[in-house]
Fold these 2 entries.
Entry 1:
Amino acid sequence: MRGPRKPRAQWRKAPSTLTLGGASVSESRLRNGLRVIVAERHTDPVVASLLMYKVGSRYESEVEAGVSHFLEHMMFKGTPSIGKGEVDRITTELGGHNNAFTSYDHTGYWFEMASDRWEGVLGIEADRMQNLELDPREFDSERNVVLEELAMSEDDPWRVLTQKVQTAMFPRHSYRWPVIGYPDTLVPLTVEDMRRHYERFYHPSNATLVISGDVKKRAALAAARKHFGEIPAGEEVTRRPYGSFLEPDGETRLNMSWEDAAKRLCISWPTNSVCTDDDYTLDLVTTLLAQGRNSRLQRRLVLDEGLATSISISNECWVDGGSFWILAECSQGTAPERLEQAIEEELRRLATEKVPAAELKRARSILLASEAYDCETVSDLGDEIAEFAIDADWRLAFDGGARHALVTSARIKECVQRLLSPERRVVGWCLPR
Amino acid sequence: MNDAVHTPASKPKADSRIAAPRLNVVRFELDCGAVLLVDQRPGASVTAIKLHLKGGHSLDPAGLEGLASLTGSLLDQGTKSRTEEQIAEVLEPKGGGIRGDANGLSGSIAGDAWKQLAGLIAEAVCEPSFPKDKFARQKERLLDRLLIERDDHRTQAGRLFRRMVYGKHWMGRAVYGSLESVVRITRKDVVAFHAKNWCPTRAAIAVCGDVDPETVRRFFNRRFKAWTSKRKLERADIRFPERASRCEAFYAKRQQVHVYLGHLGITRDNPHYSALVVMDHILGTGPGFSNRISRKLRDEQGLAYTVHADVHSSAGVFPGMFTAYIGTSPEHIERATHGFLEEMKRIRDDLVEEHELELAVNYLLGSYALGYERASRRANFMISAERFGLPPNYLESLPDKFAAVTAHDVREAARACLFPDKPCFAVAGPVRKRDVEAIFAKLLGKQGSKRNRTTKARD
């Protein structure tokens, strides 16, 4: 249980309201610091709630790698008042769904329910925010589950390869270890270690609650106040992420092998934080290169020249920095160097030539159209808003393409030259054993 | 046997019911003979279209397995009037795309551009050009995929399991075919397969979005004017191997083993269907640890991250499979499999507890209507309803069906449809076949396994 301080639950200031993803969205804050964002949309009788904590592997030291994710598992193991298995039982009883996830920068707990019964989930969240039990027997049993999850990911060659690249890319920052941790850090972890982590990060002032769907704002806020209003704020999280970014001092290459016929290529560059100009520019770069059949790399590598059987690109931007990823599977008849060379040629073209206006327009349109899918369900809507809220600013979600519209051909050229140069990249190959 | 609970399950709470999702389905028969189903959803940000074609990979000619799938995947790669690039040029800027497979075509598009999507689907169905270079490229990619999957232990475990359950029946084969069969497929085979099997009388089209049903009907009638073939669907026989214990293993040097255990399942018209849905939720699919198998093997014993079991989700026109799956460490195979078999027996022998039944029923009453926010989900449901002959009020009637299920119904359904004494058992991972066989024999309390025999399917 937490300390005795019980602030009066009142709203600090009048929220501003925006229309995003077909929903009316507004932010409020309880006196104890809990931020509550309500996204009201009445298309279907469904409500999703997503409680996000600002904690993930970014906040861990290397010896405790994986504790945030393991704790996320333990959050389903009960409190004195809601016993082991009860979170699932109550969810099931109400006919809803629940899940949770941990990333580098945040941890989220999600429920989806019919709109006539959603409020009960806030009681669960408020309870486990304060009173998690961490029974040693449950702790040991769940550690085995996490180790099985880890073993599962170690059987996936793409996961192994991308993790090796990630580790090489961030040699001094906590983004270098996997969110799930390592056996070497999970096995020695104790209940006390986890409790310290829990107490440090799980409190209202380090959390954001997003309620989306068929709910009235006033009712949602009243429910949040009722369930969370009396919880002490907790100490402000001042812990800084471990380590710092280093500018790469040249290309890094690594190789691994796997017992299959695939030739897997992963190239990654360190980039910039979420919602920076570089983030939006790299969204355009991603789209120009690999979104759809008429994107440059899909067209050339996969469809026309058959150098790769698949290619995907992602622009991953986090709180402290980001990374830009190209993953490609080399076709059987192609030499790995040939594929790599073709990718490099296309990047050089972006770095040196102006993107034709029609192509830029196509990329912006695709990004704009993706908003329709990103808010199709109330859970999609809540998830998008919550991720922006916890890592940057929810007002930037569903901006109708406004920020992508500001990205010019010149900016793309400059960004690719500056960030995606061969000297800054990590190249990983996974080849047949 | 525990017959302690003789009375029907306690009634689910009145407030556990959720309003049925509002699907405003209008059904038409198009002039070409295809069925059109339209769900008008005002304000929807996405339109989804699904064209389902009866037959699927059951129509693959012997030796050319994978042909139906390859043909479907090539439909959007060029038509008589447009190249693949031109198709992409129309759809992609609107967040649209089309994807074909052995069972038809589906696509979605953002905003109000549904006519462009529908028009291109019609064009792809009626006048695909199967360009030579696209055919060669697609075939090459498929062969690459099959080559890599040859060493993927999870894929191989799934295939071994399917093959043991369905034997030589087409349902036992991979939809994509095999390295040996795909290499034989020519462009000529694809063109001929399309001409013979892509018939409007075998097609059902579902459209969900902010569309007017009558306008959609008129649109498709115009676009499908030239789609006239009316060839009847001829299926291969539907004989499956007799249920019997069988065991297969695939060795791979990996961390985990993938374990599949089960047998031939049910068709969608099985009289126990509602009771089996409830049974599955109690046994192996209820959310989190609310089902017996997850609670026991994951939560209590910590054996796995992924574990589940169910029979109803694969039920179709043809029988699906009862499948129990776990991804675990090799040293846990015996415990995990023992857990599966024990729970299968328990749910057949004993009446489920009242609280378990109530929980499962309440979950179904509250959740069955969730998930219908997505246009593609609604389109899929319309196709399923058409294929399985579900009545128009099906979604509205579901709550009553679930609420009426008793503990006795669950036991009767389990006895009719679960066969723990005759499981197929496939394991892939760092374990040798002889060791797998030894575990299997020990668990079943006997040596060896029966050879495949065939029996007539129930439908």
Entry 2:
Amino acid sequence: MIDERKLIAELQKGLPLTSHPYAEIAERIKSTETEVLEHITLMQSRGDIKRMGIVVRHRKLGYTANAMVVWDIPDNMVDELGHCFGQFDFVTLSYRRPRHLPDWPYNLFCMIHGQDREDVLNNLQLLITSCNVEHVQHSVLFSKRCFKQRGAYYVYKDRQKESVSCN
Amino acid sequence: MAIDPAQPQAQSNQQDIEQIQQLLNQFQHNLPLSSTPYADMASQLGTDEASLLSLLKTLQDEQIISRIGAVFRANRVGVSTLAAMAVPKDRLEQVAEIISSYPAVNHNYEREHHFNLWFVLTAQDSEQLQSILENMQQKTGIVILSLPMEEDYHIDLGFPLQLISNNLQGGEKND
């Protein structure tokens, strides 16, 4: 039996740059290459893995501005609009989240990227027009300082070294 | 006609950029699940394994690529939440430092809003998540809004090529 948590930790760290990376991972977690490949396929078919591939850093490619745009959408329309927002190239996430009344009335979140503030706002305008949400109450939360950013470790050792960095 | 020494250099840069675009366009998803994924990618890109590995290493060193691996769906593996705090301006750096010090925190940003500190927290189960949130509230004395993802509407295929290609030539970005 393959240890799924160990496999996940390896896949989050990233594949080694060697000829047989899956075999190398298998060796580290005391499994076999075949088992590793089969289990990745299984996690993909369950939807646990969204994609396998190269993970790029937006900021290094010039996309330094981003805003989290939050919307107060009637519950019966949130699925439709969530899908509408999620289809744009410049949107990297579109999630429904719970409201926390009275402090927080917003239930749909999307992240809009751009080369600068103006670019982000232009993209937002395009999204508003295309999805017909001119009259929906929303708020634009530009990111200011980054205090920490790294890939998620769902599995971590107790005293794992913390690197605090932003890209 | 004089030989322009800059010319071949410019040409090879252009080739490099085209190759990087092609690489990122094709393999932000659909990484081959075979014994030799890099050799398979190389043959699709019309190059060889050694050249591809060295290109990937360079892109990783230059931090254009963070890693080659799996992107997991939120809340499918472990649990996570997006958390927000309304921190008084003069305490922001101090509170941010406390929050960043937790290994369970992977993103921590200041944003322009009354709720000005936003961070993502991941844990193995919801009990552990809850106890970390409570611990943070005790340490900082500030109430945390926890907004876990309920539905994901975005299909992640990586960052789109036309956005990438516009910017590969932009040189070093420092932020």
